[in-house]
Amino acid sequence: MLRTIDLRGSAVADYRSVLPRAEFDVEAAMAQVRPIVQAVAERGEAALAEYSERFDHVVPASFRVPAEALAGALDALGPEVRAAFTEAIARRRAVAQAESASVPVHVELAPGAVVEQRLVPVGRVGLYVPGGLAPLASSVLMNVVPAQVAGVASIAVASPPQAEFGGLPHPNILAVCALLGVDEVYAVGGAQAIAMFAHGVPGVCPGVDMVTGPGNIYVVAAKRLLRGRIGIDSEAGPTEIAILADDSADPAFVAADLISQAEHDP
User: Fold this and answer.
1) Rounded to an integer, what distance in angstroms lies between the CA atom of residue 221 and that of residue 24?
2) What is the pLDDT of residues 228-237, one digit of tens each?
3) Which of 100, 121, 131, 198 would bridge with 160, disulfide CB 3.0–4.6 Å?
4) In the predicted structure, residue 132 carries a pLDDT above the cut 80
């Protein structure tokens, strides 16, 4: 049962006490993340296996997801879900293309004095896709499509292994990777995935230039710890949404909007 809060008549200053933001202490998490990052840098694949067993309760047969697993996940995707993903990909691509069309910017301020802004793709990116509380297949397309439009030559995806699926990431995540033509996918989660991307693991995954994608507080802490060695997009924190609905709104649509937010960390 959802708690109902009536803010009519309340002052704006009262809102924060009634609706406090979630606590998000990244500095505290860094103390736990630092030895994980160091272990992956020093011990490579053995450290990945250790942390996979500890945190995900499964060690994949191969950290690199086999091509047949990607193809199988796409084949098993229901037609309605596949159509929804295909439409979402098209919409995200349209936005990314419009964003890239706004540059280059070339302004000649005086003879010989030119200011220019250009988009130059990085050589290789690692994209993290959460899979613990909820398999965020949407994060695949939200990160992969802009990288493809930008012209990034090498794209790798990492998502936690799931014991339920034999040590592979969630099938929907694999299916969207296959839809997008991404064949370098790793069954690695958490801070160890960010460390793998940043340092590279011989025989498993080459290092990357930049890491993007959301994650829990430990993923955020790893990104903070490793920025400078790699580029990062941002430190994703608590999120909120406001849904404006009156008695004319379709309850099913309102519920869907609420559910889309409920899949995130509190």
Assistant:
1) 11
2) 999 999 887 6
3) 131
4) no
| Selection from 184, 138, 154, 167 nearest residue 56 by Cα | 167
Decide the pairing of beta strands 210-212 and 124-128. parallel
Alpha helix positions (H), the chain: 15-18, 26-43, 45-51, 67-76, 79-101, 137-150, 171-179, 190-199, 217-226, 251-262
Establish if 257 belongs to a structural domain.
no
Spell 32-60 as b/e; 16+ CB within 10 A means b.
Answer: ebeebbebbbeebeebbebbbeebbebbb
Dmax over CA atoms of the chain, in Å, equals: 68
Classify residue 263: in a domain, yes or no: no
Distance CA 109, CA 112 (A): 8
Which 8-state DSSP code applies to residue 170?
Answer: P
Rounded CA-CA distance 122/208 in Å is 9
Q: Which of 227, 103, 88, 101 is nearest to 144 (CA)?
A: 88
In a domain, 2, yes or no: no
CATH number of the structural domain spanning residue 59: 3.40.50.1980
The structural domain count of the chain equals: 1
